[in-house]
User: Fold this.
Amino acid sequence: MADTAQDQSLVQVKGLKKYFPITQGIIFQRKVADVKAVDGLDFEIRKGETLGLVGESGCGKSTTGRAILQLYRPSAGDVFFKGKDLVKLQGEELRKMRRHMQMIFQDPYASLNPRMTVGDIIGEPLEVHNIAKGKEKKERVQELLQIVGLNPYFVNRYPHEFSGGQRQRIGVARALAVNPDFIVCDEPISALDVSIQAQIINLLEELQEKFHLTYLFIAHDLSVVRHISDRVAVMYLGKIVELTDRNALYKSPLHPYTKALMSAVPIPDPVIEEKRERIILVGDVPSPVRPPSGCHFHTRCPIVMDVCKKDDPAFRDVGGDHWVACHAV
Amino acid sequence: MGTLLQVKDLRTEFHTQDGVVHAVNGVTFHVDEGETLGLVGESGCGKSVSVLSVMRLIPQPPGKIPAGEVMFQGRDLLKVDDEEIRSVRGNKIAMVFQDPMTSLNPVLTINTQISESLELHLGMTKEQARKRAIELLKMVGIPEAEGRIDDYPHQFSGGMRQRVMIAMALSCSPQLLIADEPTTALDVTIQAQIIDIVKRLKRELGMAIIWITHDLGIIAGLADRINVMYAGFVIESASNKEIFANPLHPYTLGLLGSIPRLDAALKSKLTPIEGLPPDLIEMPKGCPFYDRCRHRTEKCANENPPLDLGAVRHWVACWNWQDVQKARSKQ
Assistant:
């Protein structure tokens, strides 16, 4: 990744927070607490790269993706995309920006309207953004189907006539319809069978090369993220604990959570599995309503110190573009 | 070691409005005492249905078991009466299901649910059962078990619920534990905890395990032997090490090639298995993997290969496994 053009940042996230209120009462609702789903993130996504975002369920990775696209309006912080602060944009201006950023969803069974034909599903964004109409639209839809490896004659079929992998291809075609620069892929393969997963990963990689796309790739599977990403961010309970180049992260992880996460991933080789030493974390992820004081990870950390219970460690560059939030590093 | 469970030519089908779904198509396998057998395959390959058939948990209708034999301790479980199968189920053969959120009864306390089988199968009194239930919860690593025994399932996290399920399954010291994707709904760090517990308990209690999964990584660290399933058939069967070192079926080889590995050198491209599994209502005449196979020949289109000996203690259902082996060694 020495190419200078690729070092330009496309998306800059500054102090991003997203709290969901918990309310009580029926008529007079009062706020009793917050679910701190995303609790202060600073990072950038560079042009043409794939940034992997990994973490366990409930750590806030999907909320991060949605908050960047303004599908959830952030509680605090800024998101700069192509130099504009999306958080400050409203109405028509924001809608125009949406053309440049799209999303691929996790569940191909729930993210396609069962009462629309494939042609309508893929054609809708073309109409919404006044890109193509009528015959032109139809041609573009067929072209898109071909690009994602589906038969162009499928335009008049309904989603239920397709398998999971094929449906995910339709979702990809819909995201591509408006020629976006940036796509948030929210667990695009975790609902698919093993033999189909590789088909979609390869497709996403081909499309990135062909259309110079930038991806935020959200997933819980560390092996897949390692395969597809240029840089990887690890999230735990609403915060990024480590972010660096893919090779550096997998070769020498610094944060104790990253280390534990990696040692927990099974490797399909009985000879290696026999010899492997696992770091087994005790307990469960604490509730994001009342995250632990200081470092959020201190309740499960194998190398916890006194300072970790009081002070939240700063997210800082420890050299070589390797960002970590840990007192012990 | 003796054979604990012997399944012979088991067939299970479901009669639906669209036609007959051939979920399991003549499966033969065995489990020895104290060993861990891995059943690996993708969704719809018949791995869950085969063990549910063994336990006679297939709803009939729409399900039907037209043929097969399940020998367990000298009896054919498919032929015994309902009372006898109930004395085996949960007692000598126990099961842990995939989803810990839905497999516990939400309106009963943990104590009631664990004690039930202790009172039923072992004839314990309420007091004895409660004491034993607390012991079991401690065994699966639930902290402050005495304080938590009267809690309801919603007060436990996913990982904790799966521990409760394991405690329940082990309550009557079964000889065979069937674990149907027990960690699929859990996060990796919690998955590691559960696998660790099962491994320890297996060492301590010496029961046999059938572990069903689609994750080759999990099974590599757990199983003694592995059966790979596809479209209702066992297509390859060998020891754990042999399957990974010397896969003979093109489907097994394809599965291994299509997943990225955390430890391997980075590849620029994954090699997916093209196409889709066959429709179980209209099963192909020949090999079920024919459409997706790189090594197919004319024979494969017309004749379904039986599970035959390929290498030493290694069975494979493929006419061209020798070609597969040659092609692999060239790579």
About this structure: Residues 1-6 of chain A have pLDDT under 50 and may be disordered.
